[in-house]
Design a protein that fits this description.
This is PiggyBac transposable element-derived protein domain-containing protein. It comes from Paramormyrops kingsleyae. This protein is of the alpha/beta class and 353 residues long. It folds into 2 domains: 148 residues, no CATH class; 166 residues, Nucleotidyltransferase, domain 5. Helix content is 39%, strand content 10%. It has 12 helices and 6 strands. Strands 1, 2, 3, 4, 5 and 6 form a 6-stranded mixed β-sheet that branches.
């Protein structure tokens, strides 16, 4: 890559030998969105939505096309910026919002929302809990993974807020949204998504890897995107950390840094006071603070938190009882953030304010 940067932020941290390639052009903002929600994905959603409508009522055709689907997504994004308590208010006489109401009639908007579908119900995969959103995942994930990565990357949990009933719903008390669906995300420090894994039960290890536990398997799965790359440094918290994980990552050439729970030190626990007394007078243990490493972790661990903060500014709040709708709108939010960050990256590389 051009303009290679060499830097090291702490002792024993590999010197960065790579660089995100500079851009020689800046696309229109909507084109950054379309590189993820491309024509192929939009056509798939159109076809599945039309099929779902026919399955529900053979005497009625949705006749949705790609242009109208793009208009629907555009109105949804505008609603996330100009928020009103209920979607119908955008068409009301008292609070009419022309950027929404002039695009399509209210009844048509609600019809598209009702029949919005991502997979074929006539060919279900009962072994896949994410069957309803699998085509969306399979389309977006390779595009995220193909993005050039910066040096510092982090893995953390992200919550997709959902209050309805679902076997996939999780409860994490320390998250801003405590109830919803859990997604494990690989981000850079600004929140740019490079990979993700939707939680649907215990994660199996990647092919050819030993099982090192549910949390460790998630890291190995997400880290596949940087295996064999140029000295990335991977950060994660104590839910993921274990000695087996650090060894597995080291064997793949991936340096990693994370906090760790005492019950995962596997023989590396500090001696208790009673045990020290039994060893006789003069026995002591000294804990050495590794200040550089702590500073490095605190500085670069928050990539997923940055992503959450950016999504929270204009999160899509369209109500639906269908869980796959919640995922669809969340991934639209994620794509908007990725598109905006890529746009800013290109602007910075060309010194455009």
């Amino acid at each position: 890559f051009p303009n290679v940067h060499h830097f090291s932020s702490a002792k024993n941290v590999p010197v960065w030998q790579g660089a995100v390639p500079d851009s020689d052009s800046i696309m229109q903002p909507v084109d950054y969105f379309r590189q993820f929600f491309d024509t192929e994905l939009l056509r798939h959603i159109v076809n599945q939505s039309n099929l779902y409508c026919t399955q529900e009522n053979p005497n009625h055709a949705l006749t949705l096309d790609q242009k109208e689907l793009e208009q629907f997504v555009g109105t949804v994004l505008y609603m996330s910026v100009i928020r009103l308590p209920r979607s119908r208010i955008y068409w009301s006489n008292a609070c009419r919002v022309e950027q929404v109401a002039d695009v399509m009639p209210r009844d048509r908007w609600e019809e598209i929302k009702h029949f919005l579908h991502l997979s074929d119900n006539t060919a279900p995969n009962n072994s896949d809990k994410l069957f309803k959103i699998r085509p969306l995942i399979d389309s977006l994930l390779p595009k995220f993974q193909a993005l050039p990565q910066d040096q510092m990357l982090s893995i953390d949990e992200q919550m997709v807020p959902f209050k309805g009933r679902s076997v996939l719903k999780q409860y994490i008390p320390k998250k801003p949204y405590k109830c919803g669906y859990k997604i494990f995300v690989l981000c850079d420090t600004k929140g740019l998504v490079h990979s993700f894994d939707v939680y649907a039960g215990k994660s199996d290890p990647p092919p050819g890897s030993a099982d090192i536990g549910a949390s460790g398997n998630v890291v190995l799965k997400l880290a596949q995107v940087i295996e064999g790359s140029v000295n990335h440094l991977l950060f994660f918290d104590n839910w993921f950390s274990s000695l087996d994980l650090f060894v597995a990552l080291a064997n793949r050439g991936i340096p990693a840094l994370g906090t760790v729970r005492q019950n995962r030190l596997q023989g590396g626990n500090f001696s208790k006071d009673k045990e020290l007394k039994k060893k006789g007078r003069g026995t002591f243990e000294e804990q050495q603070a590794v200040v550089d490493i702590i500073t490095l972790y605190n500085k670069f661990m928050g990539g997923v938190d940055a992503l959450d903060a950016l999504i929270a500014y204009y999160r899509i709040h369209i109500r639906s009882k269908k869980y796959y709708h919640r995922f669809f709108f969340h991934f639209v939010d994620m794509v908007v953030v990725n598109g905006w960050l890529l746009y800013r990256r290109d602007c910075d590389s060309m010194n455009v304010p």
